[in-house]
Design goal:
Blueprint (H helix, E strand, L loop, with lengths): L3 E3 L5 E3 L13 H10 L4 E3 L7 H11 L7 E6 L7 H12 L6 E4 L18 H14 L7 E4 L3 H10 L6 E5 L7 H10 L2 E5 L13 H10 L3 H10 L4 E4 L5 H7 L7 H8 L1 H4 L26
Parallel strand pairs: 3-4, 4-5, 5-6, 6-7, 7-8, 8-9
Antiparallel strand pairs: 1-2
Bound molecules: adenosine-2'-5'-diphosphate (A2P).
Keywords: NADP, Oxidoreductase
GO molecular function: oxidoreductase activity, acting on the CH-OH group of donors, NAD or NADP as acceptor
Protein name: Aldo/keto reductase family protein
Length: about 300
């Protein structure tokens, strides 16, 4: 895999970045500092993770100049109607003047305190607010994009937007391949970023026989096989999460898989489908993810 993928803005986004979903304050500072000190040049966080401040501490502690790494954060669901304020808050939390990428975290507008999407708010209006901020403040936003968008949602977005999202960040691993979304994004020049490439915490994929067999062949960990599977998909980059030094180091080692190995890995989904990220408020299928219905995890 090449070391970066080109966004539709012309910017390069590294192929492997550090994910921080579920990386708790207290641990994430060190993970970010360690990753940056050891060659990572992409860090992903979100307002919803409640760790932006600590991610910022780690960024600073690393000594790596801000201009040398790619930083992504996301607009939280309750902030759809207050995007400008949310952007300022994220910049302040992270201690930075700009974001390389700002994503709508979910097409699920809520209001502070609401427990489910509020149907009277349209996420398309949220996108329009993000577009406005992007155009008005190029010094603060280098790119904007979306996350957790299915094909159906992307079609509606593309039919109604002025700025084509640079990225769609979605869950991708052998038990959640979302090939339809990847194909659609490839065709439209939207980079797909894979989150939970291992299948998140306590993933059964790390014990999967096919994954283990391929890992043994290349003398790498099962995690490397899973991360490499995503890194080698055209137009895709990947965000393995870890707060463990040895894993942070090892996870950036990408190997080339044969077409046959890729097929074997892709076949896992036929018998073992699951999604690691399914907030209770999504309601299976209601965000246009029909493959969620048979989640078995
Ligand atoms: P930890 O952060 O404690 O090191 P995903 O990227 O799919 O969301 O997976 C993250 C989960 O996988 C976390 O529980 C993380 O644990 C664990 N993990 C990260 N890297 C590895 C690895 N190389 N081997 C095994 N587990 C890993």
């Amino acid at each position: 895999a090449s070391k970066s993928v080109k966004l539709n803005t012309g910017a390069e986004m590294p192929t492997v970045g550090l994910g921080t979903w579920k990386s708790a304050p207290g641990a994430v500072e060190h993970a970010v500092e360690f990753a940056l000190k050891n060659g990572y040049r992409s860090i992903d966080t979100a307002a919803a993770y409640k760790n932006e401040t600590e991610v910022g501490v780690g960024m600073k502690a690393s000594g790596v100049p801000r201009s040398e790494f790619f930083l992504t954060t996301k607009l939280d669901n309750p902030d759809h109607e207050r995007a400008a304020e949310a952007l300022e808050q994220s910049l302040k939390n992270l201690g930075t003047d700009y974001l390389d990428l700002w994503l709508m975290h979910w097409p699920a507008p809520m209001t502070p305190g609401s427990v489910a999407p509020v149907k009277t708010i349209d996420w398309l209006d949220t996108w329009k607010s993000m577009e406005k901020l992007y155009k008005a403040h190029p010094e603060k936003l280098r790119a904007i994009g979306v996350s957790n968008f299915s094909v159906e949602y992307l079609e509606r977005l593309l039919a109604n937007c002025e700025v084509v999202p640079a990225v769609n960040q979605i869950e991708l691993h052998p038990s959640c391949p979302q090939q339809d979304v990847v194909d659609f994004c490839n065709a439209k020049g939207i980079v797909v970023t894979a989150y939970s490439p291992l299948g998140s915490d306590n993933s059964p994929l790390l014990q999967n026989e096919v994954v283990k067999k391929i890992a043994e062949k290349y003398n790498v960990q099962p995690a490397n096989v899973l991360i490499s599977l995503q890194a080698n998909r055209p137009g895709v980059n990947v965000l393995p999460k870890s707060v463990t030094n040895a894993r942070i180091l090892s996870n950036s080692n990408i190997i080339d898989l044969t077409a046959e190995e890729v097929k074997e890995l892709n076949d896992i989904d036929k018998t073992h489908h699951f999604r690691a990220c399914h907030p209770s408020w999504t309601g299976w299928g209601s965000l246009g993810f029909p493959d969620c219905k048979d989640a078995d995890k």
